[in-house]
Amino acid sequence: MNSTQTRGEIAMAGTRPATPQAMFTKIAPRYDLVNSLLTLGGDKRLRRRAVRTLRLGFGAEVLDIAAGTAEIGSAIAAVYEDPVSYRAVDLNEQMLAVAERKFARLRRKRPRNDYRSSLGSAESLDFASSSFDAVVMCFALDDMDDPAAALAETARVLRADGKFLLIELAMPDSPLLRGILKFRLRVIRAVAAVARMDSVAHMTREVELDRGAEHTVVRCEHAGFAVDSAQRHLGGLVRAYVFRKAA
Q1: Which of 33, 35, 145, 236 is most enclosed, with most CB atoms within 10 A?
Q2: pLDDT tens figures, 141-184
Q3: What CATH superfamily is the domain 20-170+212-245?
Q4: Which residues contact 124 (CB under 8 A, 6 or more apart)?
């Protein structure tokens, strides 16, 4: 944290450039592949490890904000045998269309689970207050027009002592690992340019604009959360935080 900045100033600071919805529409059929490429094939494993930290109980109600293709729903199905109610919310119809096709498979695997999707904005959720035991937001916060409003809405719909799992792309703390990752990102960006995959190039630049763990924690504390745990995945490329709704 810059010594001249207050915690409130950090919480309200501008975010990275948002990803245009048109880009998500274009990439929806290949979105899971792009995530796999960007995380060097480790995205499914890290999601499973991350959702395990939620310790979901029997019949837990989970909201996945900016759910995209609902890979978090797949991770929950892989980790938990007890029934879970999973709701995916996203602004993009094409991404949710991919999610719905995925739900058909997940319902066969976990017939006691309830899978639903709906169009909606993270900044104005169409759910009553205190509706969910857990809320998840994966690779999404800095793509939103108003991250502070999205965090406020997350706190509103979460039940008392509920858990908020926030997963973000990041740069490693180690200078050596940062250098290695930057080289890999340049290679990925070059391949993406040849393949005309603009979305991949955009996401690699988002990683390089990471402003650190303290920035994320302060923003969430400002919205009424208390940090419960923080983990690094994939050599520091991904950070996963679990926050609790403050009393």
Answers
A1: 35
A2: 888 889 999 999 999 999 998 999 999 887 777 777 777 777 77
A3: Vaccinia Virus protein VP39 (3.40.50.150)
A4: 149, 153
